[in-house]
Amino acid sequence: ATEEGAPFLVTEPLDGVLLSDVLDEARAACAFRGDTGWLSTRLGLEGAWEPCFLRQAATWVARLAGGLAAAHRAGLVHGAVDPSRILVRGDGMPVLMDFGLAAPREPSVDLMGLAAVLRDLVTTRESVDRLPRPLRALLDRGLAGRQRDRYPSAAAMERDLSCFLTYRAVEARSLSIWARAFDHLRVALPVRRSRRGRGRTA
After folding, report:
1. 3-state SS of the chain?
2. What is the distance between the alpha carbons of residues 126 and 16, in angstroms, rounded to a whole number?
3. How far apart are CA 161 and CA 138, in angstroms?
4. Which listed residue, of 98, 157, 173, 184, carries a Cα 20 to 30 Å from 11's Cα?
5. What are 87's strand-pairing partners?
6. For residue 94, what are the β-bridge partners?
7. Tens of pLDDT along the chain (202 residues)?
8. Distance from CA of residue 65 to its chain's centroid?
């Protein structure tokens, strides 16, 4: 805190590439049709990359989930997880930025945001239905329409991602195509009704 008692946040200086820029390059580089060498040649990043971008994406999100798990245990919630707030450092490590800038939220908001980041990363070239079944199951649970069907904690999400990366069975179970479509519709309908309601009262 300052001498006046006002809180402030101190962070280390960081150098790297925003994950939102990595996503743009992934789409341009046909990330699912080759190795991950373009991360170095196109973005200037260095690191021990996974052999394909899909596994690299899962590795990044697993590390971010581990960081969120530690933050949640300390009572900290980010509240606005998205690719524009994630920096991939020059050594290839992901860092979640802007902690404490969003309004107070529940930890579940972070989990939904991180699951959406994973979806964006792994669907740059493939639809969800063409992903490996364990990864589809991870996304289905992370983005489930009902709170009770989602991951209970960032630690649980990290465990499933670690299982996927080490070729072990994940705890999550994949939905059918029809169940996934119904789940997404159930999430979208309340938003549309709310918007129509606001239009009538204006």
Report:
1. CCCCCCCCCCCCCCCEEEHHHHHHHHHHCCHHHCCCCHHHHCCCCCCCCCCCHHHHHHHHHHHHHHHHHHHHHCCCCCCCCCHHHEEEECCCCEEECCCCCCCCCCHHHHHHHHHHHHHHHHCCCCCHHHCCHHHHHHHHHHCCCCHHHCCCCHHHHHHHHHHHHCCCCCCCCCCCHHHHHHHHHHHHHHHHHHHHHHHHHC
2. 26
3. 8
4. 157
5. 18, 95
6. 88
7. 556 665 555 566 678 999 999 999 888 876 545 578 888 888 888 888 898 889 999 999 999 999 999 999 999 999 999 999 999 999 999 999 988 666 678 999 999 999 999 999 999 877 888 999 999 999 999 999 889 999 999 999 999 999 999 999 999 987 666 566 665 555 444 444 444 554 444 3
8. 8
pTM here is 0.81
Q: How many residues does the chain have?
A: 202
- Among 85, 63, 81, 44, smallest CA distance to 155 is for 63
- The token pair at 88 is 């991939």
Is the alpha carbon torsion for 122, 125, 126, 127 positive or negative?
A: positive
